[in-house]
Design a protein that fits this description.
single chain; five-stranded mixed beta barrel; about 35% strand
Length: about 200
């Protein structure tokens, strides 16, 4: 992530490199429109980051609505923002929440923009996009991905496909969680960039 600060006409500007980039997806990659699950808003209308203490059907302190499922970890943020590339799950209708690697959730796609915090791209709307598309290829910059096993990536050189799952904090990982839904496959990896093929 490269952040540039400047001043133009007394306006403080912040710019950053796009964290999630479509590399190959002319016909495969689809940014599906949807809405933030009501549990991702607080009672004053701001973004509420999902916490490890959230329980299914319970309205947590400060939340506007009950959590759709019980979480095991707080959702990952950078500068207070949910990051693009975070795994989304479908809740009710066209509503999306942040995956937690659990069993009771339907994986739907990858978050297309920053939500909340410093880099918020949603503001007072609830509209978000979820990237989908089997065989579409993406680059995801750090810190947008979770634990990637160097040993597993080394196996890739032997021709093995390395699957990606939803980590407990919502990011992609090579470590198999409770929910074994494969979201993508590693193509290339270094500590700064994860290139992967989406399979959902």
């Amino acid at each position: 992530m490269e952040i540039i600060y400047g001043d133009a006409s007394n306006i403080n500007l912040t710019a950053q490199k796009r964290l999630l980039r479509v590399v190959q997806g002319q016909t495969q990659a689809t940014p599906t429109s949807g809405y933030l699950d009501p549990s991702l808003r607080n009672t004053t209308g701001g973004i509420r980051i999902p916490l490890s203490t959230d329980k299914a059907g319970v309205v947590s302190a400060g939340a506007a609505a009950a959590s759709p499922f019980t979480r095991t970890a707080t959702a990952f943020t950078f500068e207070g923002s949910l990051v693009p590339g975070t795994v989304l799950v479908k809740t009710v209708g066209e509503n999306y929440a942040i995956a937690d690697g659990g069993t009771a959730t339907e994986v739907f796609g990858l978050l297309g923009q920053w939500v909340g915090g410093t880099f918020d791209g949603v503001k007072n709307t609830n509209n978000v996009s979820a990237w989908q598309g089997p065989d579409s290829i993406y680059d995801l910059l750090a810190p947008g991905f979770g634990t990637i096993s160097a040993a597993k990536v080394a196996e890739q050189k032997e021709g093995k496909l390395i699957p990606l799952y939803a980590q407990a904090d919502g990011r992609l990982t090579t470590e198999k969680p409770t929910n074994e839904t494969v979201i993508g496959e590693v193509i290339e990896y270094n500590p700064s960039v994860l290139r992967f093929r989406l399979v959902i």
